[in-house]
Design goal:
heterodimer; A: about 170 residues; mainly alpha; 6 helices; B: about 110 residues
């Protein structure tokens, strides 16, 4: 058992375990903090797949941005000072059945498909420069559209959240 | 049995795909069962992450193209935009209805 294997299982366990806490925890603050570790585990998996730039991006945007946003959402919409931080669930049993069936199908497909793998994996030094080149050549139009979408989302979110109530 | 031990000891494409399948199922479960809108949002984030793992895994175990990673970055960009908008909407809903439970919000306006 070499080091890569151990690291893979550590990150996979961190990811799956903390996403289980996200889903099954009764306390929404616990879920939000478990989400941090889930994102962190996914970043580790990216690093294991030689996607160094993507791993850092994941940490910066998900852990640094989205998670802080989610925490703000939790704090602003729940009465933290009250004991009542619990959030209810509904339709547990049918959901368990359907999601279990979904997971079984996914597992079967991933397991039984005969993936034609390349014999030797391409050795990757660093992905940053190549990703940058792809952004400015083949993916130039999606790149520009994404920047416009971010701008629109920024302005839109500020407008929606700041609207004064007439009362 | 021997095969299984070997399979366990050498993480490859299938391992990453299975992890992403688990994440996806958890995400769908959170979306379906949670009443708090923010936890539904967390479920969506889990689903997006599982899709990203698939993209990166296929990119890694292909002939060295980085297209999958570029798509994953686009997914992250859209997830950031989506989280910002969704939380703004949730804040507004909280101001109007004083709750964020998705099963109690059944009017578009008050």
């Amino acid at each position: 058992m070499d080091l890569t294997t151990v690291v893979f299982y550590v990150f996979a366990l961190v990811t799956i375990g903390s996403s289980a806490v996200v889903v099954f925890s009764k306390n929404i603050v616990y879920s939000a903090f478990a989400l941090l570790f889930a994102f962190f585990g996914v970043a580790g998996l990216y690093a294991l797949m030689m996607a160094d730039f993507l791993a850092v991006t994941q940490l910066l945007i998900y852990v640094g941005g989205i998670l802080v946003l989610v925490l703000f959402g939790v704090m602003l919409t729940t009465n933290v000072l009250d004991v009542q931080l619990r959030s209810g669930t509904m339709h547990i049993l049918p959901a368990l059945l359907i999601v279990g069936a979904l997971a079984a199908v996914l597992f079967m497909v991933f397991w039984s498909t005969d993936w034609t793998l390349v014999r030797e994996l391409a050795s990757v030094e660093q992905t940053g420069p190549e990703i940058g080149e792809l952004f400015l050549t083949r993916y130039l139009l999606p790149f520009e559209i994404a920047s416009v979408i971010l701008l629109v989302a920024l302005i839109g979110a500020a407008m929606i959240a700041r609207r004064e109530r007439k009362a | 049995m021997q095969n299984l031990m070997e399979w366990i000891q050498e993480p490859g494409l299938t391992h990453f795909l299975l992890v992403s399948a688990v994440l996806f199922s958890f995400g769908v479960f959170a979306m379906v069962t949670r009443r708090n809108a923010i936890q539904v949002l967390m479920g969506i984030e889990l689903i997006l992450n599982s899709a990203n793992i698939n993209f990166v895994a296929f990119s890694r175990y292909s002939w060295g193209s980085l297209d999958g990673q570029v798509i994953a970055i686009f997914v992250i960009i859209l997830a950031a935009a989506e989280a910002a908008i969704a939380l703004a909407i949730i804040l507004n809903i909280y101001q109007n209805f004083n709750t964020v439970n998705v099963d109690e919000i059944n009017k578009l306006r008050d």
